[in-house]
Specification:
7-stranded antiparallel β-sheet; alpha+beta; 6-stranded antiparallel β-sheet; Serum Albumin, Chain A, Domain 1
């Protein structure tokens, strides 16, 4: 058959020429970047770096900005963890996790029969832990800050004054929680309004709170009028936080969990986060298997990963808690022989049952609504930060005078050993409530080195799915050769020992794969209700330029510096 070529019109020819020029123009290398849950926050972080600030300065500004435009998880009244690596290779971490109030006790959520009172640790003032965010950010500035503290808070003040724009996903989130907002705060509360995509949200009360923090540092939050409003609101909604609790709060610099996976060196968060230990356990149990050869999200690779997750989460339930209160056998939990023995009962022929997998016996030697952001500056400093209110909008209690929601972090304790929390995680005595104790977390901010150089900065929200989402993103890049955006976007699955279900993102996995898993004894479920991560990551390429991955599951945005 003869092909007849039609003449190309001048306009089409011009468009083709322009396409050719731009497609052949080399892209500018990315020298730094901020990847966070909101474009506004990412841009503010980049602006700070362009003004001469470091990744640490950008972290502080990004965090405060998220407290304005991402109120379901961004916060000044929650807490979090930061893992860092300086351009010189120094690695460390900061624990600014919330604490139980001084008046807290082990049985505070139990009725007269010793049973857990529904929602007591989730809604209202009694669910609120002592906030750590502002103290943590201030400690980081004291140690690493280059720009003046005020300059780092000011962009968030202006954002609260001028307003941010509601996204479609955010409008749905506000609508879903509207009734809870009204129940806890009344019909006049800010977020009880009917918001639609494109609406602007002004928060002058939060701007005033941030102004106090800008002027007075951490004392602007833990003392004075802001502290007065917080204590008053907590106590009038049934809580027990006092001024003494606020004044006593201190963040803690901790050594991260450091471990090897093949030729990678990983630095992740230590207890009271379970993230680093669980991530290390899972990767060490997976390492002897050829998951790269099995293929991405194949039957065999999913089996190996699920079985490793099952055993790690079982250990988590017994051994992990606040290291200032309980002895945690970290060396034993990460021992190669111990982990080899943990996988000895695994077979490709048949699923293990969680009822048959108890926490391992060792010799003692010693949210879903969270948000994560990753930052690398042009000098090579890197931070991985995960921060949270725990549940979406925390306790749903809004401090009207302050313009912010209070956390419900007390639910991350074991209200009663063996009874699951809101994420289905089962805890034991190691995570029981005690005054000034930090509750166990799954947050997993992680920095990875390859051949002694910065390789990957990664983390995610997602409650109990945080650890498994970070795990799969790392494997996607390292074992399956994906670019970082593909690695972040790829479908994910999750298993956490109890309940004994493998959760798959819906409509992302072939039905035959799930049928094959079920035939081997796995209980497979596709659930939309459980978010399986919203990963934000930065990868260092072989030519030392950066690539970014912002999770399309949210409004997450990467803003680069060229």
């Amino acid at each position: 058959m003869n092909c007849i070529q039609k003449p190309i019109c001048p306009r089409a020819a011009l468009l083709l020429l322009l396409f050719f020029i731009f497609s052949c123009t080399p892209k500018k290398p990315i020298r730094g970047a901020v990847v966070s849950a909101r474009e506004e926050a990412s841009r503010i972080g980049v602006q700070i770096m362009q003004q001469g600030g470091s990744a640490f300065d950008a972290m502080i500004a990004t965090d405060f900005a998220l407290s304005v435009c991402y109120p379901n998880a961004g916060n000044i009244s929650g807490g979090g963890f930061m893992v860092y690596r300086t351009h010189t290779g120094a690695v460390g971490s900061l624990d600014y996790r919330e604490k139980a109030p001084l008046a807290a006790d082990k049985d505070m959520y139990l009725d007269e029969n010793g049973e857990v009172i529904p929602n007591k640790s989730l809604l209202g003032g009694l669910a609120v832990g002592v906030p750590g965010t502002v103290a943590g950010l201030y400690a980081i500035h004291q140690k690493f800050g280059k720009l003046p503290w005020r300059d780092l808070v000011q962009p968030a003040i202006e954002l609260a004054q001028k307003g941010y724009q509601v996204t479609e996903k955010q409008a749905r989130s506000f609508a879903d929680k509207k009734e809870d907002f009204i129940v806890q705060n009344g019909i006049q509360t800010l977020y009880a309004q009917d918001f639609k995509a494109g609406d602007g949200v002004l928060n002058p009360a939060l701007a005033a709170t941030l102004e106090q923090i800008a002027q007075k540092g951490k004392d602007g939050f833990y003392k004075g009028v802001v502290a007065d409003a917080l204590v008053k609101r907590v106590q009038e909604t049934g809580g027990i936080i006092t001024h003494e609790d606020l004044i006593a709060y201190q963040p803690v610099w901790r050594a991260p969990i450091r471990f090897q996976y093949k030729d990678l060196t990983l630095h992740s968060m230590a207890p009271p986060s379970s993230g680093g230990i669980c991530l290390a356990q899972i990767l060490k149990m997976v390492e002897p298997y050829n998951v790269g050869q099995y293929g991405h999200n194949t039957l065999k690779s999913i089996q190996v990963i699920v079985e490793a997750e099952r055993r790690s989460y079982a250990d988590r339930s017994l051994y992990l808690g606040d290291p200032d209160f309980v002895s945690i056998p970290i060396d034993s939990l990460l021992d190669d022989n111990y982990l080899k023995n943990r996988m000895r009962s695994f077979s490709f022929e048949k699923a293990s049952l969680s009822s048959d997998i108890a926490p391992g016996t060792i010799v003692w030697e010693e949210s879903e609504e969270t948000t994560h952001y990753s930052i690398v500056d042009p000098q090579g400093n890197a931070v991985a930060v995960t921060t949270t209110l725990n549940g979406s909008y925390g306790s749903k209690v809004f401090v009207e005078e302050g313009g912010y929601f209070l956390n419900n972090e007390m639910d991350d304790f074991s209200s009663k050993p063996g009874v699951p929390n809101m994420f289905g995680l089962v805890g034991g005595e190691a995570n029981a409530i005690a005054p000034q104790k930090r509750m166990l977390s799954a947050m997993t901010p992680t920095i990875v080195e390859k051949n002694g150089a910065l390789y990957l900065v990664v983390g995610t929200p997602g409650g109990s799915t945080i650890i498994t989402s970070v795990l799969q993103t790392l494997l996607n890049v390292y074992e399956y050769g994906m670019d970082i955006q593909s690695a972040v976007s790829a479908p994910r699955f999750h298993h956490q020992w109890l309940p004994d279900d493998v959760i798959f993102e819906p409509h992302q996995f072939e039905s035959k794969l799930i049928q094959d898993l079920n035939a081997k004894g796995y209980s497979s479920k596709e659930e939309y209700a459980r978010i399986i991560g919203r990963v934000d990551a930065i990868l260092v390429n072989e030519d030392k330029t950066l690539s970014t991955g912002a999770d399309p599951r949210g409004d997450d945005t990467a803003v680069p510096i060229y």
